Amino acid sequence: MALGSATFASAGKLQTESPLQDLTAIIRSRVPLIAVECNEEPQIVSLVRQIGSHLQLKAFTWTVTEGMQAFNSCDQPSSSVLKSQEILTYIKSSSSYCLFVLLDFHPYLQDSVHVRFLKDIALAYPKHYSTVVLVGVSLQVPEELRPFTAYFRLPLPTPEELRGIVVEVAAEWGAEHGRREVQTTNKALDLLVRNLTGLTATDARRLARKAINDNGVISSSDFPEVMKAKYELLGRDSPLSFEYETAQFAEIGGMRRLSHWLDVRKSFFCDAVLPANLDPPRGMLLLGVQGCGKSLAAKAAAGIFGVPLLRLDFGVLYSKYYGETEKNLRKALETAEIMSPCVLWLDEIEKGLAVGDDDGGLSRRILGGLLTWMSEQHKPVFIVATANDITQLPPEMVRKGRFDEIFFVDLPSAQSRREILAIHLRKRALEPAQFDFDALAEATEGFSGSEIEQAIVSSMYVAHAQSRPVTQADLLAEIKQTRPLSVVMGEKVQEIRDWAAGRTVPCD
Fold first, then answer.
1. What stretch of H or E contains 506?
2. pLDDT tens, position by position, 56-73
């Protein structure tokens, strides 16, 4: 399928009637202050220009660099109004109803004099009134001004509008390259639109251009870079870390039952068009012995679904400042929704959600916020929570229906140990055929996957120090010297295994 000017004509442009009507309704209500938090500055200015013209009101913009500028040159004041306090003085003394758009005014909201000016303007209603529209990327309205402030947010583009943006960008690219047409398929175009969902029109246009610009083709190979760029736009100062290159289950020994369970749900994340009556999979809780592959399974889940992996770092989530932790959680969950479809990995969740009485109720608020979001959100965000000790988790977290399934990652069986040995030997360019896997599997009874890997690494150090290749004897010697966790903390490991028996589904 080719995207060109004909396709663009049928796709249509962005629809602005709804935000125009919404902002008009707010202005008609004669509210003194309107806070608009966005980076779509030109679109807000355009909306106010249209509203001013329709309502026959004088309208002005102000920036710290250009001062006050009238939309209609006939309304431009005779003297310049440059400084921030000058524009507020001008608004306060205005005898007619006007619209003022103050761009990037948020730094001045930290100053008590500017806040008092704005409050005076608000209190002058209705004797002397004007509507002040405050526009900024990050607006924190002071407590004193909140009773007088209405909030407006530009709606994000719909899938139809995003499709129109992609087609428009394709037409622009074609015009720049000798009227060439961008090549794609309906499925690839639908998936690109799906990956752009949650972005502003400006950001969507930028990423669509990035996908097309290299070779004039929209294909699945573009999506990893698009998703990385999308995260960079959304994930600034976020407690989420992003990883697109995720491990496949071919790189994991064992876990066949879990692999099949995930494969059944794969189509939900891979299909561009989904049945309306199909709810997205909620997620899974992985319990098990340390070092047995819970983290690798989380990455593999994202790999099987072909979606990005977002890891929530509870260490970054928590803040010493009051209210910041809850704000960080809301931002992280909002980012996960916008990045959907994706896998959200909650690593060692029992440490992040351990409920105590010595934190002023913070851990309970975080738990409540997370549980509410898990119950109410309907985006394709698949949660993978990993835990080493389920007894530390609050009961609300593990009740039936919270996750689709609870899996137990046990110490690997003999067959799984053979697979793990082969994987790590190949990973380090060692020829598996040179080793006796039956003997190695027997020697590593009770070892976790990470302990098997470390034995291979240690044997390589020994061989390298003696300038010779690794041998079977090297591996067996390192295995013999290793005391696995199942021996060092045998009682604790057995306690975990006993608890999981009959309560969870084995991964293998």
1. strand 505-506
2. 999 999 999 999 999 887
